[in-house]
Amino acid sequence: xxxxxxxxxxxxxxxxxxxxxxxxxxxxxxxxxxxxxxxxxxxxxxxxxxxxxxxxxxxxxxxxxxxxxxxxxxxxxxxxxxxxxxxxxxxxxxxxxxxxxxxxxxxxxxxxxxxxxxxxxxxxxxxxxxxxxxxxxxxxxxxxxxxxxxxxxxxxxxxxxxxxxxxxxxxxxxxxxxxxxxxxxxxxxxxxxxxxxxxxxxxxxxxxxxxxxxxxxxxxxxxxxxxxxxxxxxxxxxxxxxxxxxxxxxxxxxxxxxxxxxxxxxxxxxxxxxxxxxxxxxxxxxxxxxxxxxxxxxxxxxxxxxxxxxxxxxxxxxxxxxxxxxxxxxxxxxxxxxxxxxxxxxxxxxxxxxxxxxxxxxxxxxxxxxxxxxxxxxxxxxxxxxxxxxxxxxxxxxxxxxxxxxxxxxxxxxxxxxxxxxxxxxxxxxxxxxxxxxxxxxxxxxxxxxxxxxxxxxxxxxxxxxxxxxxxxxxxxxxxxxxxxxxxx
Length: 489
Hints:
489 residues; Rossmann fold; 2 domains
């Protein structure tokens, strides 16, 4: 307690001191401004205009400097743009560009074919979500007692996905897809379930009461799809009328505009029979399901959104297809980046034979490092500014200079694995060290370009520092083998 009291006193003293300094600074600035104003009053008009122009120029330079330092990265700007669903034309253009680059787009084309097939079928697809204990299966039986069911396993998954086909009272052909419970997906929407939600026209989420954290996260993601979403409170018989009303209000307060209905899909109820002798008999009998509210709400959504259901579904599918396309592009770029890093690492191993010490002489390796950074930037379609490239190489060089002894020692151990070489071959020693350095640098640059959408020297150098020590012994042996092979060739 005494320590906390003293800490509070110190904090109060610091705050008072800062306030005093701020007041003194304001007083000084005000006095200086008034004095300057008095001096300018007697000057010609052009002097005052010139002074104002200089002040304005300084403000503009400061603002430009702040913008340059705090400007959003290209990657973030791209993400903001991606929040708007792409049109079919935009997606097909991106698809064609990827195909021209030799990128595999089979998954994207499959997604678009599936969308076209569903459009031609003219069926309304509904995805049903919820935890295993929420009573989804019982609810489906109560809602669709005569529906035809098809069972399938998606994406190599062993979890079954049931599709129920039926025709509503209004004549609409519907398919309800019962997705695996959240419990089966490790407490979250797995990829199969998430993709089916994007392909569907309407999403229904079933819960037993107030939402758990897992259910809340799933609902939050589903609502971001911006398509009709219906939440069903099952087992309404568990709650009193007042509690049920509070539950409705609580959920709707967290999800604006959400349609919430309560149902009773199954269960038992207590019935008291009066026997002829005047005695009473208590028996339990099946409770008749009450799912009319769900059927009415579902039909109302279909009738209200009939003209835009396909449009909303198509937009979500286009986003899904675009995501798969970006994944394919990133995977292809990662493979190509690995080839670039491997190529320049081999060149660095060869060029290191003439280096004095790794990290201290970048006259030979600096050229290769610059070329590697530019090659990776071209691959990721990011302009590499010369200033950023030079700063990154300088930061890497400083760090390597501090760890030269350790790198050389590990490189020497790697050479010891090859009899007859030892650590006496200085050129080989430097070659192994440069192999480890270039490999780490290349992956650091690729990581920055991939995650940030631009080359960030500080971020890339930090990645280099953190990963230079990864699996050093195995790396040393790998590059020692490469260096010896190059020497013998």
